[in-house]
TrEMBL record:
Gene3D superfamilies: 2.70.98.10
CDD domains: Aldose_epim_Ec_YihR
GO biological process: galactose catabolic process via UDP-galactose, Leloir pathway; glucose metabolic process
InterPro entries for this protein: Aldose_1/G6P_1-epimerase, Gal_mutarotase_sf_dom, GH-type_carb-bd, YihR-like
Superkingdom to which the source organism belongs: Bacteria
Family matches, as SUPFAM superfamilies: Galactose mutarotase-like
Entries under Pfam families matching the protein: Aldose_epim (PF01263)
GO molecular function, one term: aldose 1-epimerase activity
Protein name: Aldose 1-epimerase family protein
Amino acid sequence: MNELITGDQHAIASGPYRAVITEAGASLRELTHEDRPLILAHPEDEIAPAAFGQLLIPWPNRIDHGRYTYGGKTYQLDISEPKFDCAIHGLVRWAPWALAELQSNRVLLTARLLGSGGYPFRLDLEAEYTLDPGEGLTVRLSATNTGRSPAPYGHGAHPYITVGEALDGCTLSIPGDRYLAVNDRMIPDGPPRKVEGSSHDFREARTLGDLKIDNAYTGLSRDGDGRAWVHLTGAAHTTSFWLDERHPWLEIFTADTIPADLRRQGLGVEPMTCPPDAFNSGTDLIDLAPGDQFSGTWGIKAG
């Protein structure tokens, strides 16, 4: 009998890559290449600290005071981040996800988000993780509105990529030409600012040093396949992260407030369909009509 608090552990592998995805939240708990960790992991019988590997649905990041208006009605979500009086990272990251398909290199998990007082909408969700010897990990998130009214929607994810050493000596590249400054409660403080001339400009790779970042980037430069790339390079290894065009926002977090033994050992790289507090600003918020589906993909690879 499985009595792990993160539930069933779904292990997949392909070539040099290995991954473990948990029943709890359909979270990415481990990802390795040739036994080298590509993300910060956590033990199977401990809850994910600092949102390690979690999926953020139906909104990423924060909603100010947990309150928003949609379709002419005002809703109040539970305050899941009392420190800043915010609702943070959605509603499904601790929920059990059902196993739909499992192959040696692929797992598909599903969840049904039913209505609640703060989010009276109904969504059917899918999270698909696939490993490939050349491409590494690809993750596809999908949501279908199975309710009777339009639903506000956004999603994200919260892996921390690592090269096995402290961030300070690593070289980092971030593809965004604008970033969101935030107030002391981590809510956006005005429109996106140009990174040019600021400490947030990592369009050309440079050493991170002791700089602290916890900001969303946009204006992402992309390759011919529509992917925007983040590269974290240490003394011996590079770990790369990509996100598709369905994710115009990218939160970067230098892990300054996570558990002390892992602090600044990994970089939070969070693909987002919308910026923080989008349920209030409306920026890139998805109006998911009944019967409609939204999907987006992102991935991680060595090198």
